[in-house]
Specification:
Blueprint (H helix, E strand, L loop, with lengths): L1 H20 L3 H5 L2 E8 L7 E2 H13 L3 E14 L3 E12 L5 E11 L5 E8 L2 H6 L6
Parallel strand pairs: 1-6
Antiparallel strand pairs: 1-2, 3-4, 4-5, 5-6
Length: 136
């Protein structure tokens, strides 16, 4: 399953960055589960689907994101309907510095047959270093 899981993760990541670059809000949010939880964002306990959607919509409309890419992707665990991966996410914005974060994501194969992100956690610097996906 590891080879297939890696292919699923890479396909999902590619779709995520492609829809972000094209500023396709509906298509981008279709990659995210309605039950998603985003953890580890400073100042927020948890970010849910509606808030994530609003943030993306605003960023896309204001053309804030210049480029997104992922590096050092690795599959941590994989089953028939769940995959956990880690990666470094690099987001370049129009009027600011590049934002680099180690992330851990969980993809779930939902009932409509699509793989969607159900959880993303931004790793602390210590975790990223421990998992050898240091962001610097």
């Amino acid at each position: 399953m590891t080879g297939k899981a890696r292919e699923i993760v890479e396909t999902w990541l590619d779709a995520s960055l492609t829809t972000a670059h094209a500023r396709e809000h509906a298509e981008h949010m279709d990659l995210i589960s309605k039950t998603v939880s985003l953890l580890g964002v400073p100042g927020f306990e948890v970010i849910k689907y509606d808030d994530w959607s609003r943030q993306c919509k605003d960023e896309f409309e204001e053309e804030m994101v210049k480029h997104v890419r992922y590096e050092r992707t690795e599959v941590i665990a994989a089953g028939m309907s769940l995959i956990i991966f880690r990666a470094v996410e690099i987001i370049e914005v129009e009027d600011g510095p590049e934002d680099r974060n180690g992330i851990e994501g969980t993809l779930v194969h939902e009932s409509d047959g699509k793989w969607r992100l159900t959880q993303e956690r931004i790793l602390s610097a210590e975790e990223a270093e421990r998992y050898q996906i240091a962001v610097n």
